[in-house]
Design a protein that fits this description.
11% of the residues lie in helices and 26% in strands. The chain is an alpha+beta fold. The N terminus is likely disordered. Bound molecules: MU-OXO-diiron and calcium ion (3 copies).
Length: 693
């Protein structure tokens, strides 16, 4: 993604190379496998799926439990914006822009909050933008590369006081260190700082006179790529996770490359480990649980394993087998990554739990279907790499108000197969399932136990013939219809000969959003019906609701590479983009889409409007609102990510121009000005109304 990397760095775009070389069995029901895109969109599939989506067949739902713990339901009911199935997008779309600040529609304003380096725990070390921060300071400051975010409202003032939990996906070393990164062997404090800039931040925030600030209270916490964690579920105690740190295979350290997130109906935060594989090196021969995920054979992404101190906490990133047994080295350390981790934001002393039953892959995020009283819960998660899969975990326990996170330790993990006729199936990855056993036998693949299946989730999904998707990013479940939406960001590796109805473009440069409805509106069902919500792209190669012969996108809403998607309480589907540099600045064969930003969509009519665009060279990722919908928190990740050391392509937000309106003055970009910092922006309407309506 940039040409400034040292030779021992991989590209800093956070993406993972394709490692799915499986030769899946073809679908049993492939009818029109090599249909051209036009035939797929306009042909016989239309009738099959038209009318299934949108207003038809609303679920009869129990009201979802409030996402915020410590909050009586009555308090939320009073302050919560009423849900609308068919929301009005009541703002004027902003044009394509590229400027070093946020651009917002008329009638909106914004402030920044918690930029990288903001002190949150005692003794609250101030961020020094000139001389830089140390590893010890970084451990007490907000991390870098903000991504998935959730707001947990507090009972005293749910719309003005809460806890933000957010992910810090990775670091740009050229921006993180004043003089750039030192070559390996890496100075210990640089490694310590990089590890501390990863992970999760838990930050209490409060609004005073319309302005949000950090509360220096006891909830604030940093969880990093070095924090001790516990393994729970079927993989706990497996031989595959035993290390010198935990000979019993019950504990590990750190969560890495936390991209999107989730939360639970019982008020906890879920952080998802995405492109963790590249942080490790294995020079002694990779077992399948390393090779299928792309663990490096030469060096770790940031060469943390070479830290000069040689301390155990850094050596563990070298997963070569060097000792007589797994309990004496770190050959299994990569197997402790790739999970969904549950964190209680209201208990700063709690140990984060890796919930292994939800599978091990490059988890983008996780989202649950609206809970239905007395029924199992379903959690959806995508594996963001080229030609990987979409998964669903269904709890064995049935929903009631007293549930806790332990219900995530028992249930069934499924992977999706999208048939070309618009139907779909969830295929169990369960060693006790007869179909799974048969598929594994026919493929000649052996699994020792369910822990082996879960550590090798990708292989298990290969075996059952899941559908290879165009890089599944965030999912979102419509709170009223139960329809599940997933962003498929792009896929340069899909050949035209390999298109299918669910991934109808090869190569897919601009991505699309797919959606499905579970049979009977039961999120735990094993069959579903799907269609495509939007094919992103330029005006000449895009379409909204293709199964309904919808229109192409226009200058008001062209976009590419959808990544973050989220439903707010007023029924708007928010879409965030993570386009490549060339798609942002022009020169891309697929078009010029301006800066990454955010659009709003009506899920029923397919109306889409551009709402926000961000500063130079950032990705817009992470969005959540207060319960009343009047305050929106949005993250700008890695502004200036094409920067060189001391020569930044963005100075946002510290040059002062946090946001502008479409005809507002351009902020001055100072070539050697302040270092760009990932940050959250807080968006409100100038008249105090609900954002988006
Ligand atoms: Fe970290 Fe898939 O984006
Ligand atoms: Ca990213
Ligand atoms: Ca993402
Ligand atoms: Ca992405």
């Amino acid at each position: 993604m940039n040409d400034l990397s040292n030779d021992w760095q991989v590209a800093d775009n956070g993406d993972e190379p394709m490692s799915n070389n499986s030769n899946n069995p073809e679908f049993a029901t492939v009818l029109e496998k090599r249909l051209s895109r036009r035939q797929v969109l306009g042909g016989s599939l239309t009738a099959a799926v038209a009318g299934l989506f949108g207003t038809a067949g609303l679920a009869n739902l129990a009201v979802a439990a409030p996402p915020g713990a410590k909050l009586p339901p009555a308090a939320l009911a009073n302050g919560k914006v009423p849900f609308a199935l068919n929301p009005t997008l009541g703002f004027e779309a902003i044009p394509l822009t590229r400027t070093d600040s946020a651009t917002l529609p008329y009638g909106y304003k914004a402030q920044t909050l918690i930029p990288w380096g903001t002190p949150i725990t005692a003794p609250y070390p101030a961020f020094d933008g000139i001389n830089g921060n140390t590893g010890a300071e970084q451990e007490r400051q907000v991390g870098s590369h903000h991504d998935g975010i959730h707001y947990f409202p507090m009972a005293d003032d749910p719309n003005g006081h809460g806890i933000l939990a957010l992910n810090h996906e990775y670091v740009d070393q050229r921006v993180l260190h004043v003089n750039g990164p030192s070559p390996r062997p890496r100075p210990t404090d640089e490694v310590r700082k990089e590890i501390a800039a990863h992970g999760v931040a838990i930050v209490e925030v409060k609004r005073t006179d319309g302005h949000w600030d950090v509360v220096r209270g006891s909830y604030n916490r940093r969880i990093t790529a070095g924090t001790e964690m516990e393994l729970t579920g079927p993989v706990r105690g497996s031989d595959l996770v035993k290390t010198r740190f935990s000979a019993e295979g019950t504990h590990t350290r750190g969560t890495i490359n936390n991209c999107a997130h989730g939360y639970t109906p019982w008020g906890t935060y879920l952080t998802c480990e995405e492109n963790w594989a590249g942080y490790f090196v294995n020079k002694s021969g990779r077992p399948r649980e390393h090779s299928r995920y792309g663990v490096s054979t030469s060096n770790g992404r940031y060469s943390w394993e070479t830290a000069v101190s040689g301390a155990d906490e850094y050596l563990r990133f070298d997963a070569s087998a060097t000792a007589a047994s797994a309990a004496e080295d770190y050959r299994n350390e990569p197997n402790n990554q790739g999970w969904i981790v549950e964190i209680d934001p209201f208990d700063p002393t709690s140990t984060p739990k890796k919930r292994t039953a939800l599978g091990r892959f490059a988890h983008e995020g996780v989202v649950f279907g609206p809970p239905q009283q007395g029924q199992p819960l379903a959690f959806y998660s995508g594996d963001d790499a080229q030609n990987e899969y979409i998964y669903k975990f269904v709890t064995k326990a049935r929903y009631h108000k007293g549930l806790t996170g332990d219900v995530l330790d028992e249930g069934t993990l499924y992977v999706a197969r999208f048939n070309d006729d618009g139907s779909g199936e969830w295929l169990a990855l369960d060693i006790n399932d007869l179909n799974f056993q048969t598929a594994a036998t026919m493929a000649g693949v052996e699994f020792k136990d369910q822990a082996d299946v879960l550590v090798n989730t990708r292989l298990a999904a290969d075996v059952v013939g899941a559908t290879k998707m165009d890089r599944p990013e965030w999912g979102a479940v419509h709170p009223q219809t139960n329809e599940v939406y997933f962003a498929l960001t792009n896929n340069s590796a899909r050949a035209l000969a390999d298109i299918d109805a669910a991934n109808p473009r090869g190569p897919n440069a601009t991505g699309h959003i797919i959606r499905w409805r579970e049979r009977g509106n039961r999120n735990w069902a094993t069959r579903f019906d799907w269609d495509i919500f939007v094919l992103a792209g330029p005006e000449g190669d895009s379409q909204v609701l293709p199964a309904q012969n919808g229109p192409a996108l226009t200058q008001d809403n062209i976009f590419a590479s959808p990544d973050g998607i989220w439903f707010d309480n007023s029924g708007i589907l928010w879409i965030q983009t993570d386009m490549s540099g060339s798609q942002q600045i022009g020169g891309s064969a697929s078009g010029d889409f301006g800066a990454n930003g955010m659009l709003a969509a009506n899920p029923v009519t397919g109306e889409i409007k551009r709402f926000l665009s961000g500063p130079n060279d950032q990705e817009t990722t992470g969005v959540v609102a207060t319960p009343d919908g009047k305050t929106l928190f949005v993250n700008f990740q890695h502004p200036g990510d094409r920067s060189g050391v001391g020569a930044f392509t963005s100075n946002w937000p510290d040059h002062g121009a946090v946001f502008r309106h479409p005809d507002g003055a351009e902020p001055t970009v100072v070539p050697r000005g302040p270092r760009p910092r990932s940050a959250t922006i807080v968006i409100t309407r100038e008249d105090g109304g609900v954002v988006g309506l």
